[in-house]
Amino acid sequence: MARGSRLARLAALGLLGALTLTGCELGEAEWWERNFVRWGWPEGITDEAEAMQNLWIGSTYAALIIGAAVWALIAWTVIRHRKKGDELPRQTAYNLPLEIVYTILPFIIIAGLFFFTINTQNQVRQISEDPDEVIAVNAFKWNWQFVYPETAGPDGEPVDTVGTSTEIPILVVPTDRTLRFELASADVIHSFWVPEFLFKLDVIPGNENGRDNVFEVTVREEGAYVGRCAELCGTYHAYMNFEVRAVTGEEYDDYLAARQSGLGTYEALEEIGQPGEASTTTPLDLVLDKVEDLQQTGD
């Protein structure tokens, strides 16, 4: 009994410590919002992320209500049918109405969750007939190419940005516009993932710009956000990163104009007052250089 009590106290102290440290790191208001408003759900930056958040919050409230009902029934049963003497209580073999209720009720709950999940999924994967912007994303081992097909550079080809082992590719997008991403893979299965989108989509080779390789989002917050490949695709999969740079619509138009005039990604970003290099992740060669330095220091 003492051992169990001691373990319970240690668990309570650990939970209290974790909550306290989390609260100090995030700030009281943000901590409260994340844990008791969003119920642990990350805060997204797109309309689609908000739809998924609403599904999560609704499901959490449903689970809390069902859990409270179950615990209330357990408590009622323990109290109502507690032992009152040595006489054996009346035995009941069947209760048909009760059996019908606890057979049908779970199906109703499952059907409700299924309905709202499918409804949210359809909303997130909805493709409009005329998006504001179209961006082609080409994945290859082990980097990314972003093409703006509705533009034309000095050579007549669409403006694009290609990542290398020494340069993180920056995908510049406008806020408050419907963005269609058309994904394609040059070799194996990759996965386009921006954590702040709360969404990822596998890039299936052989289905270039097909229905399964297309999705749309509307970004609502400016900023720099890391993007990654979320599908194990080979030796340097872990370094297959990119950065999403969300800017205002006016800045985006100026960026494309600068690119079409012949400026590179770095120069065009500097032209609109944005940092020319990625700030959310590090190129492969820099990582390897750091590893080599550490190894030499260790020797």
Automatic annotation (TrEMBL):
PROSITE patterns the record matches: COX2, COX2_CUA, PROKAR_LIPOPROTEIN
Keywords: Copper, Electron transport, Membrane, Metal-binding, Respiratory chain, Translocase, Transmembrane, Transmembrane helix, Transport
Location in or out of the cell: Membrane
Catalysis: reaction(s): 4 Fe(II)-[cytochrome c] + O2 + 8 H(+)(in) = 4 Fe(III)-[cytochrome c] + 2 H2O + 4 H(+)(out)
Organism superkingdom: Bacteria
Domain Cytochrome oxidase subunit II copper A binding stretches: 130-258
Topology of this chain in the membrane: Multi-pass membrane protein
Residue ranges crossing the lipid bilayer per the database entry: 61-79, 100-118
Cross-referenced InterPro entries: CcO_II, CcO_II-like_C, Copper_CuA, Cupredoxin, Cyt_c_oxidase_su2, Cyt_c_oxidase_su2_TM_sf
Family to which the UniProt record says this protein belongs: Belongs to the cytochrome c oxidase subunit 2 family.
Protein function: Subunits I and II form the functional core of the enzyme complex. Electrons originating in cytochrome c are transferred via heme a and Cu(A) to the binuclear center formed by heme a3 and Cu(B).
Official protein name in the record: cytochrome-c oxidase
